[in-house]
Amino acid sequence: MNPDIPKQRPVPVIEDENRRLRHAVEELSTLNDLARAIGGMTNSQEIMRTIIHRSVRAIQAEQGVITMVDRKADEPMKTLVRTMVRSAAGQPYHFNESLLGWMQLHRMPITLNRPREDPRFQGVRWDDSVKSLLCVPLMVKGEVRGVLTVYNKKTEAGFTEDDQRLLAIIAGQSAQVIENARLYESEQTLLRMKEEIRLAARIQADLLPRVFPDVPGYDIAGRTIPAQDVGGDYFDFVPIEGQRLGICLGDVSGKGLPASLLMANVQATLRSQSSINAPPQLCIQRANKLLLQSTSPEKFVTLFYAVLDAATHTLTYVNAGHEYPYLYTNATEPSRLSTGGAPLSIIDNFPFEEETITLQPDDVLVVFSDGVTEAMDIAEQQYGQSRLESLLSDCRRASAPAIIERIIAAVKQHTGNAPQHDDITLVVVKRLPT
Fold it and tell me: What tens digit of pLDDT does each residue of 13-45 get?
């Protein structure tokens, strides 16, 4: 034999190498097609369905599932998303929590061609139709963010090492794409929520009085500063027949958007009752019954409602569990308006009481929410009633808007850099000197 002629390899060896080369080309083609398919997607569900569909087809499985999880202190393994693709009609297989726990612990692929006989999962109950499965982790920055599982290889031999290697590559290639899509969706959801809250804040601002009422012989003003974009405090001025004016200041339990929705309900209820020219006591009783029927048990409203009659200079009021307003007269100490009863939406058919007082020239009524007196500085020291009383004694001669601005400025000076924890709302009614 001529030594210069290369020795030919046996035909079976060549065929085996060709099969491996074809298999490698098919794997590369699968990975390349998958990368192109999901590279431009932003919808996480669509991305996961594409990944599962390509995986089921490439590995010749009956069904595939992606389960995304979240790790929290109170719920270590909580399923967030479960996306499934089946190659044929049939019942979906349920992902086993024991398998998820194993994946969280070991963070590596696992092949179970006889899951009921595997000693690692003794006592685990599998779906009757599950004959084999292959599960790989979806890792992002060293953490298991989910698992990709395929069920029931279509050949009798079951899943192979090549199948496990290919699915692990698919998972490694896809995990960050899924995570990026979910982060993008979360960002878009947050942006939509911010826009909705912005619109809610605008609507709420439109519900508040735009101008102060012009009542002969009186100086009246009001202002609210929500702790969040929208708040649960409100004030309102409701014109009634003759020279009478309804004056409201309410504080809904809670803060934020839920409180603002209930606040709008309270305002609409009070306006409807005031418009029929009912006395304050009857208005509050009807409002209490309506709110009790339309709100959840844990919600309630503290409310100060009064009707000012500029012709007789009388103020008839009901205080439904609200902070007691200050009435400054020529007396040495201010009086507090406490007559009324419980907050609204707590006790059905509560017997609210009303009281009528007469306002003299230079008398000043200051109605406020607890966001004023309970405003805290960085050391959690409240502004308190004593500071408010001292300030009002000094500034009661100022105009109604000026009194409000003085109070707000003093509260902000007290709180400094501490965040505002509650809504701040004020109404001032001052009878002008004759």
Answer: 666 666 666 656 666 666 777 778 777 788 888
Cα–Cα distance between 31 and 29 in angstroms, integer?
5
- Classify 12-185 by CATH class: alpha beta
pLDDT in tens, 154-187: 888 899 999 999 999 888 888 888 888 888 888 8
Q: Which residue type, as a one-letter code, is found at position 327?
A: L
Dihedral sign of CA atoms 213, 218, 219, 220 in order: negative
**In this structure, what token pair is assigned to residue 54?**
């390509």
φ/ψ of 64, rounded to 5, equals -140, 150
Q: 275 to each of 34, 128, 163, 302, how far by Cα in Å?
A: 66, 68, 76, 21
**Do the beta carbons of residue 100 and residue 121 sit within 8 Å?**
no
Indicate the pTM of the whole model. 0.65
Residue reference for tokens 């606040």: 263
Residue 374 · residue 426 · CB < 8 Å: no
As a whole number of Å, the end-to-end CA separation of the chain is 134
d(CA 286, CA 68): 51
Rounded CA separation 105/67 (Å): 16
Sheet with 364-368: strands ordered across = 218-225, 424-431, 364-368, 326-328, 335-336
Q: Residues 180, 185, 189, CA angle at the centre, nearest 5°?
A: 150
In terms of Cα–Cα distance, which of 279, 321, 327 is closest to 301? 321
Q: Which residues of 396-416 are buried (b: 16+ CB within 10 A; e: fewer)?
A: bebebeebbbbbbebbeebbe
**Structure tokens belonging to residue 36:** 């192109």
- Confirm whether 12-185 and 200-431 share one CATH topology: no
Considering only the top CATH level, what class is 200-431? alpha beta
Q: Where are the domains of the chain?
A: 12-185, 200-431
Contact yes or no for 287/274 (Cβ under 8 A)? no
| Structural tokens at position 416 | 């400094």
